[in-house]
Amino acid sequence: MIFLDTCVLIDYSRDKIVLNLEKNYCISSIVKLEFKADALNKRELKKINRILSQIMLVDTDQSILDLSDTLIEKYALSHGMSIYDCIIAATCLVYDLSLWTYNKRDFKYIDELELINEQN
């Protein structure tokens, strides 16, 4: 299963890339919220909601939040890691998911996290 970062969903919604939504992709609530917040108008929000309805949503439970806390302490000051990126990374680590992102610099220092940048 592949976890999609918000940047990938934004490119997909703007027809910059092609996603085969029949593949095993997933997101978390944090990505869902970031994606919706990027909507420019109600028409785009409707398109975003249509896309989101086709992608599996994984839970953000206490173990993810606990790991996010560890990541923020470890990387926020030294690498500028954001709260959102901590939650995304923790989600991938807890569920053992690869992360498809274009922002590898935001995650490259987490050795246990598999980063991919695939084009379908």
Structure description:
There is one protein chain. The protein contains 5 helices and 5 strands. The protein is an alpha/beta fold. It has a 5-stranded parallel β-sheet with strand order 3-2-1-4-5. The longest helix has 18 residues, at 62-79. The radius of gyration is 14 Å and the shape is globular.
Keywords for this entry:
120 residues; alpha/beta; Rossmann fold; five-stranded parallel beta sheet; 5 helices; 5 strands
Broad shape: globular
Q: Which CATH top level class fits?
A: Alpha Beta
* CATH homologous superfamily placement: 5'-nuclease
The helix/strand series, from N terminus to C terminus, equals EHEHHEHHEE
Tell me which oligomeric state these chains represent.
Answer: single chain
Flag low-confidence runs.
Answer: none
CATH topology: Rossmann fold
- Major beta-sheet overview: 5 strands, parallel
The overall pLDDT average reads 93
CATH architecture group name: 3-Layer(aba) Sandwich
* Proportion in helices: 40-55%
What fraction strand?
Answer: 5-15%
Count of spatially separate domains: 1
Note the gap between the termini: 15 Å
Number of strands: 5
Q: What's the topology here?
A:
Blueprint: E1 2-4, H1 6-13, E2 25-28, H2 29-37, H3 42-52, E3 56-58, H4 62-79, H5 83-95, E4 98-100, E5 115-116
Parallel strand pairs: 1-2, 1-4, 2-3, 4-5
Helix pairs in contact: 1-2, 4-5
Short description:
With 120 residues, the protein is of the alpha/beta class.
